[in-house]
Design a protein that fits this description.
By secondary structure, the chain is an alpha/beta fold. Helices cover 33% and strands 23% of the residues. The chain has one domain: Spore Coat Polysaccharide Biosynthesis Protein SpsA, Chain A (Alpha-Beta Complex), CATH 3.90.550.10. It has helices at 39-49, 64-69, 74-82, 86-96, 114-119, 143-154, 210-217, 229-238, 259-270, 277-288, and strands spanning 8-12, 33-34, 37-38, 54-59, 100-105, 128-132, 135-139, 157-163, 173-177, 184-189, 200-208, 243-247, 251-255. The radius of gyration is 20 Å and the shape is globular. It starts with 7 loop residues before the first strand and ends in a 5-residue tail after the last helix.
Length: 293
């Protein structure tokens, strides 16, 4: 059992969302709705369920709508109260009370390791969760909570993984496990299909600590001249550190960074809604049947 509880999370939200243009021209991709909640709120709610109290969002100049979403909206609250929409009023108030939100501008080279360095001074010498703001994990229990519970038992750093088709391994960091364990033996960023050690892809759920930050500070730019978190994990493992891979149970990792996967995620969450599922299913059946709208 570890004595130090994980209470902080860093969320990387400085990406430009170019694969979803023009929808993301004036709106951060993390604010696009999954039914009636923005992607980032679903991510935050997963973290809160895991006991996270301080959430550090690593942003850039065009992310103000995201910051506003987690702030109080006095004009909207007054309007809802005036119109006696009390249920919606409480829902809107709750958003700003989910956690203590801290905003840091990203500085440094391009790459998914840079947000960790940008916020590193705020998580000094303590374990923390690192999350990508456009990755969802749709599961019965918060996947982050499952990770935190494992960490509290064994004290080992870890990253979320999920099997992907062989044809997609070149899009992700791919993990090689030590035989018969969930310990990472090697991890490679976007390998060629014929060079991939497995089909286990990493995704944006990690438990890291100060040692990973220190390694990142001395990590050279890697593939495509970017700073990769995978390269720091690889160094950690090569230096004898134990780093675990955790697969999603009773759920699914869903990326939302492109149009197809965004639509898949939206439908998956919509079908979970009792007030929507039946009509959506009927509508899809109508479209498939060629009767149009």
């Amino acid at each position: 059992m570890v004595s130090q509880k994980i209470k902080k999370a860093i969320i990387a939200v400085a990406g430009s969302g170019t694969r979803l243009l023009p929808a993301t021209k004036a709106m951060p991709k993390e604010m696009l709705p999954i039914v009636d909640k923005p992607i980032i709120q679903l991510v935050v709610e997963e973290l809160i369920e895991a006991g996270i109290e301080d959430i550090i969002l690593v942003t850039k100049w065009d992310k103000k709508p995201l910051e506003d979403h987690f702030d109080r909206s006095w004009a909207l609250e007054n309007e809802l109260e005036k119109n006696n929409k009390l249920e919606k009023l409480e829902e809107i108030k709750r958003i700003s009370e989910l956690a203590n939100f801290i905003y840091v501008r990203q500085k440094g080279p391009y790459g998914n390791g840079t947000p960790v360095l940008s916020a590193g001074s705020l998580v000094d010498d303590e374990p923390f969760v690192f999350v990508w703001g456009d990755d969802l994990v749709k599961a019965k229990q918060s996947f982050t909570k499952s990770m935190v519970e494992d960490y509290e038992k064994n004290g080992h750093l870890m990253i979320g993984v999920q099997k992907v088709p062989e044809t997609e391994v070149s899009r992700y960091g791919i993990v090689k496990l030590r035989e018969g364990t969930n310990e990472i033996e090697d991890i490679i960023e976007k390998p060629k299909q014929e060079e991939a050690p497995s089909c286990l892809a990493d995704f944006g759920r990690m438990i890291l600590d100060q040692e990973i930050i220190n390694i990142l500070k001395n990590t050279a730019l890697g593939k495509d001249n970017e700073l990769w978190i995978v390269d720091a994990i690889r160094t950690y493992v090569k230096n004898g550190g134990i780093f675990l891979a955790k697969e999603v149970e009773n759920g699914e990792w869903m990326t939302t960074g492109d149009a197809l996967n965004y639509l898949k995620a939206t439908l998956a969450y919509a079908f979970d809604r009792e007030d929507l599922a039946r009509e959506i299913e009927a509508y899809i059946g109508k479209i498939k049947g060629g009767s149009g709208v």
